[in-house]
Structure formats: structure tokens, C-alpha cells
Design brief:
With about 190 residues, the chain is mainly α. The protein contains seven helices and no strands. The radius of gyration is 18 Å and the shape is globular.
Length: about 190
């Protein structure tokens, strides 16, 4: 509460670099999911705005440096909030608030799908060095695992995944596997 009072988001906007994801994690850890979700929502909104801006950037600007910025300001804030969102969704589910849980779970699927599409595009661009490729591959695996987990939770709870996201985790897993094979082929060509 001290940090919330002394450093309000109106003075220091929520971002990964300002430690907001750690603050959201702390709220979630002590069971204050509404406060955690408020911060996570702001992080996600800012990240989505950045990803939307990036998607309209000119092709000439899409180099490693911009991928790095987009990862830092777009993808990373989204992926750091997934566990908070899943926990908050599960809490709603356990409280019997199925429709609220369903909306939160489908929101996770939407953001994870956007992350997956960006990561797949970055990995397929040919503009990344091997170290950065490995980082993005790990992140893509994490995103795919979140989608699979959410689909399983929803199925077990009898909640319907929005039509737009049915089977999406398998599509991303297939893309991830394709990128992995391509990465190995590029590495063999270098060796």
C-alpha cells in the first residue's frame, strides 16, 4: 500500500521498467487480485498500444533494434502478466463467477494469440541473431504453454473458448516447431 500511495500510476505510469509487474505479483501473492489485475490491465493496455504501433511501422524500420524495443515494451509486459491473469481467473472460477472467469480466460487467449503472432513474425523475419532467436523461442514456448493451460482449465470447468481462439494453441505450437526446425537448419549452415 505504501508504494501505491507514494508512487501512484498517475505520476509513474505502470510499465515493466518501473517494476509494475513485480508490484502486481506482490498484490496477487497476498490475494489482492483486483489490485493486481488493475495493474496488469494497465500493463497490457500499454503493451497492446505499442504492439499496434509497431505493426504499422514501415518495413524498413523492422530490424533487430526495433524487435528488441517491441519485445521489451510489448511482448514482455504481456507475458509477465499472464500468471496473474490466470490466477485471478481461477479465483473467479472458484468463487462461482463463471462468466467473469470466462471473460478473463478469453482475454488471456486473445493477448497470448497476439503475442504468438508477433513472436512468429519476428522469428520468421530473418533479422535476428542466434541469441535473440533463442530468447524469442523461449518466450514463444511460454506463450503457447499459457494458451494450452487456459484451454485445459476452461474445458475442465465447462467454459467455452471463444470461436476465434479454438485450437489456437495447437496452431502456435505447430508454428513454434517450424521455427525450431528453421533455427536448427540455419545453425547447421553456419557450422
Amino acid at each position: 500500500k505504501y508504494a501505491e500511495k507514494m508512487i501512484p500510476s498517475t505520476s509513474v505510469p505502470h510499465s515493466v521498467s518501473s517494476g509494475s509487474n513485480e508490484l502486481a505479483d506482490a498484490w496477487a501473492y497476498i490475494g489482492q487480485y483486483d489490485k493486481a489485475m488493475k495493474i496488469a490491465s494497465e500493463l497490457q493496455t500499454n503493451a497492446m498500444q505499442y504492439l499496434n504501433w509497431y505493426s504499422y511501422a514501415t518495413q524498413a524500420g523492422k530490424r533487430d533494434y526495433n524487435y528488441s524495443l517491441c519485445y521489451r515494451d510489448g511482448i514482455r509486459p504481456l507475458t509477465t502478466t499472464f500468471s496473474i491473469c490466470v490466477d485471478a481467473s481461477n479465483k473467479k472460477l472458484n468463487e462461482g463467477k463463471k462468466e467473469e472467469a470466462k471473460a478473463l480466460f478469453n482475454g488471456i487467449m486473445k493477448n497470448a494469440d497476439i503475442c504468438g503472432k508477433w513472436l512468429s513474425g519476428a522469428l520468421g523475419s530473418g533479422h535476428l541473431d542466434s541469441q535473440y532467436t533463442n530468447i524469442l523461442m523461449s518466450e514463444y514456448m511460454r506463450v503457447t504453454q499459457v494458451m494450452e493451460s487456459v484451454e485445459e482449465i476452461m474445458q475442465n470447468a465447462g467454459l467455452a473458448v471463444d470461436d476465434a481462439y479454438k485450437g489456437i494453441s495447437q496452431q502456435h505450437m505447430n508454428a513454434l516447431n517450424m521455427h525450431y526446425v528453421q533455427m536448427q537448419e540455419r545453425q547447421k549452415a553456419v557450422d
